[in-house]
Amino acid sequence: MFFSVLSVYAMSSAVGLNLSLEITAFAYFLSALFIILPLTIAGVGVREGVLVFVLTRAGFKESGAIALAVVGVIMLFVFALIGAILELWGRLKKTPQS
Q1: Are the C-beta atoms of residues 90 and 80 closer than 8 Å to each other?
Q2: 82 lies in which domain range?
């Protein structure tokens, strides 16, 4: 989870939010707690909503918080797609050739 917090911290800098590491960790852990609730598939939407809520309550602009949430979801899907491609490639390599 440490590297996840660091990645959110780096993404926050990329979108122009100057979050402290403490606020980043708090927002990340709180959003991670909320994705446990079975409200949506993989917590998509809940995680972003909690992140935006926490950051706007901490005094950051809503537009920056939304940008961070969107970048985070895009990164999540990109890495999931890479993993799916690698998994498919590995399974295809194991398939016996006729």
Answers
A1: no
A2: 2-94
CB 54 within 8 A of CB 67: no
8: its two tokens = 């959110």
Residue with tokens 């446990």: 36
Burial of 60 (0-12, 13-18, 19+ CB in 10 A): buried
Per-residue pLDDT of the chain (98 residues; tens, 9 = 90+): 888 899 999 999 999 888 999 999 999 899 888 888 888 787 778 889 999 999 999 999 999 999 999 998 999 899 999 999 999 998 888 866 65
Rounded distance, CA 6 to CA 64, Å?
A: 18
Torsion sign over Cα 3, 69, 24, 46: negative
Number of domains in the chain: 1
pTM over 0.90, yes/no? no
Q: Which residue has the tokens 């917090």?
A: 5
Taking the C-alpha atoms of residue 30 and residue 32, their distance in angstroms, rounded to an integer, is: 5
